[in-house]
Amino acid sequence: MKIAILGYGKMGKTIERLAIQKGHEVVLKISNSNQHELTKENLIKADVAIEFSRPETAFHNIAFTLKSGVPIVSGTTAWLEKLDEAKSICKAENGTFFYSSNFSVGVNIFFAMNRHLSSMMATHLQYEVSIEETHHTQKLDYPSGTAITLAEGILENLDRKSRWSGVLKKEGVGTESFPKEAIGIVSNRIDPVPGSHSVKWESEIDAIEISHVAYSREGFAAGALTAAMWIIDKEGVFEMKDMLGF
Ligand SMILES: NC(=O)c1ccc[n+]([C@@H]2O[C@H](COP(=O)([O-])OP(=O)(O)OC[C@H]3O[C@@H](n4cnc5c(N)ncnc54)[C@H](OP(=O)(O)O)[C@@H]3O)[C@@H](O)[C@H]2O)c1
Known about the structure:
The protein contains eight helices and eleven strands. By secondary structure, it is of the alpha/beta class. The protein folds into two domains: about 1-105 and about 220-245, Rossmann fold (3-Layer(aba) Sandwich), CATH 3.40.50; about 105-215, 2-Layer Sandwich (Dihydrodipicolinate Reductase, domain 2). The protein has a six-stranded parallel β-sheet, with helices on both faces. Helix 3 (about 55-65) runs parallel beside helix 4 (about 85-90) and helix 5 runs parallel beside helix 6. The longest helix has 17 residues, at about 105-120. The protein is elongated, with a radius of gyration of 19 Å. The structure holds NADP nicotinamide-adenine-dinucleotide phosphate.
């Protein structure tokens, strides 16, 4: 498989290393310094593009790649106000677009557990739910895209919450300060944590906590590469549950 890597940072470099190990070829690498090389002529040399860049550049990269007729997998977070527009461009172009806020298979199993636990908790009003996430200090956005997906999974299943509310721990605010109708998300930024998430359900007499801890970026990179191979002969908009079946 010939791959264009859009965003040659920590994730882009991990994807390149794994891709070469698996016998794929990287034919284009785009970062901030060589954005001008993101042309249709260069893109069409690739069978698929994998995009892990920055919130302010993701939409342009995705739209341009779709308009160039090249399938694209993206994992960039914190640009999702334009996700529906990107999906519309994909449909209009009869293109292929796979987005996930988290490409780790383990995290997607965790998402399914979270939805199931939330539906069980719907009738157990004594439990208060909260989310905590920790990432390295270079992560620009908070809460993480993964924490937001966890919150959305809870909101789908729990009538007593209507929104989520996030805070950075260093601001010195605790979960107790979140409004009653909101799922509190506390974000920590500690080096060199690749990504840890937990969901806690607490009553006055006990607590149930589920968590996922990534040991490295490999799981995200491997998932993105698997998604890239999976979409190559498909058309449409896809997410992890289409590929994994849950
Ligand atoms: N979905 C998932 O599973 C998952 C997992 C991990 C991370 N992420 C997300 O993926 C994104 C990237 O993470 P990272 O850790 O790799 O960040 P990073 O190390 O900061 O890399 C971002 C890269 O994007 C490049 N860039 C800047 N402008 C660009 C443009 N116009 N076109 C293409 N590339 C451009 C930067 O180039 P310069 O170095 O030249 O500035 C940098 O190399 C973040 O949004 C992060 O939250 C998602």
